[in-house]
Amino acid sequence: MMAIMLEQLGLQPGHRVLEIGAGSGYNAGLMAHIVGDSGQVTTIDIDEDLVEGARNGLRAAGLDAVTVVCQDGGFGHPDHAPYDRIILTVAAWDIVPAWREQLKPGGRLLLPLEVGRSVQKSIAFDKTGDQLESASVKDCGSCP
């Protein structure tokens, strides 16, 4: 699922990325390699234990440039906005305004969206003006 979502995300060197759902930090590390030294990756999670584990894992991998923050992902992270890409690695039932507001024009929001009882779709939305337009839809079901 990670590979599918990273493909949908369409990362490029220099992109500024916000990841909501830090987990182990592995996905943030992959994204940091793709965006390179000219890019920036910020990953956030509401669980302090996960945040500390992600920090330690990223540090051990020599990826000190990834910013790891403990906070509610529903607010995004305005301190480093605007972002070229925002990715949720946790399930969502709706798109909150903060994500759209913190996304650059032409940016992409990717999230596993609950679309029915026990049904998830990994949907990439591109920001066009004030609107989000679906760019890619894939089946998924691995994001709790």
TrEMBL record:
Domain of life from the UniProt record: Eukaryota
Similarity remark: Belongs to the methyltransferase superfamily. L-isoaspartyl/D-aspartyl protein methyltransferase family.
Database matches in PANTHER family:
PROTEIN-L-ISOASPARTATE O-METHYLTRANSFERASE (PTHR11579), PROTEIN-L-ISOASPARTATE(D-ASPARTATE) O-METHYLTRANSFERASE (PTHR11579:SF0)
Indicate where this protein is primarily found: cytoplasm
Which keywords belong to this entry?
Answer: Cytoplasm, Methyltransferase, S-adenosyl-L-methionine, Transferase
Keyword Cytoplasm belongs to the record:
yes
Record's GO cellular component terms: cytoplasm
Where does the record place it?
A: Cytoplasm
Q: What Gene Ontology biological process does one annotation of this record name?
A: methylation
This chain's protein is named: protein-L-isoaspartate(D-aspartate) O-methyltransferase
- Alphabetized GO MF terms: protein-L-isoaspartate (D-aspartate) O-methyltransferase activity
Known EC number: 2.1.1.77
Record's keyword annotation contains Transport: no
Instruction: Return the InterPro entries for the record.
Output: PCMT (IPR000682), SAM-dependent_MTases_sf (IPR029063)
